[in-house]
Amino acid sequence: xxxxxxxxxxxxxxxxxxxxxxxxxxxxxxxxxxxxxxxxxxxxxxxxxxxxxxxxxxxxxxxxxxxxxxxxxxxxxxxxxxxxxxxxxxxxxxxxxxxxxxxxxxxxxxxxxxxxxxxxxxxxxxxxxxxxxxxxxxxx
Length: 140
Prior knowledge:
The protein is built from six helices and two strands; from the N terminus they run αααββααα. It has 140 residues and is mainly alpha-helical.
């Protein structure tokens, strides 16, 4: 069965970790500190950060004073880049069975809801820059 609008724990950790880095981008953040602030497993966070480093969204510095920092300006990084670094390409699925027996679209038993939701999520992730989120007044 296909997954409609999948945001795994790993993707959520990646998105939130990147927000931490962007909000305080003048310092290195250790895995331990970030895991504590996000209330997540340090081991899981470390795996997520490795994926983000592999696609060069973050840089890591080893050692006692080391940690993570953004590898690009926060205004250049989209939420979609972060999501796809963790989950792979976001595919627009419209049918739970991946074969529209009902004809798909508005004939779908869900009235095309999943397709609309997936398109809206993809658009939001692609158009939203990390820097836009951390400068919003409601997040300060």
